[in-house]
Amino acid sequence: MYEFDEECLKVFLKKQGQLFPEPVAESLEEADEFLQDCMAVVLVSLKEVKEYWEENGMDVEGMTLEEIEESAEVFPLSNGRYLVVEA
């Protein structure tokens, strides 16, 4: 069983090129292991993504929610959720 749900893994596999120049995973299992290793998180809104980044010392002062959503580290999921992958 995976730590991340199947949607997270599939979205990451499909869109990993937005964050990395070469694929870092080629299967659901590899994607799950990679996301665990880099301590990726799933958050339920862009507001939570912004708060998470602020709590972790990222300078997001003046960033709009749209700019946050367009960040390479943010992978939109269904139901307003977001997978955040720290590179």
What would you say this structure looks like, in words?
This is Glyoxalase. The structure is a single chain. With 87 residues, the chain is an alpha+beta fold. Helix 1 packs across helix 2. It has one domain. The two termini are 24 Å apart. Strands 1-3-2 form a three-stranded antiparallel beta sheet, with helices on both faces. The mean pLDDT is 95. Strand 2 and strand 3 form a beta hairpin. Helices cover 40% and strands 10% of the residues. The chain has four helices and three strands. The longest helix has 10 residues. The chain is globular.
Topology diagram in text:
Layout: H1 6-15, H2 28-37, E1 41-43, H3 46-55, H4 65-69, E2 74-76, E3 82-84
Antiparallel strand pairs: 1-3, 2-3
Helix pairs in contact: 1-2
Defining traits:
three-stranded antiparallel beta sheet, 87 residues, 10% strand, alpha+beta, Glyoxalase
SSE order: HHEHHEE
Give the number of helices: 4
Uncertain runs:
none
Overall mean pLDDT stands at: 95
Short description:
The chain has 4 helices and 3 strands. The chain has helices at residues 6-15, 28-37, 46-55, 65-69, and strands at residues 41-43, 74-76, 82-84.
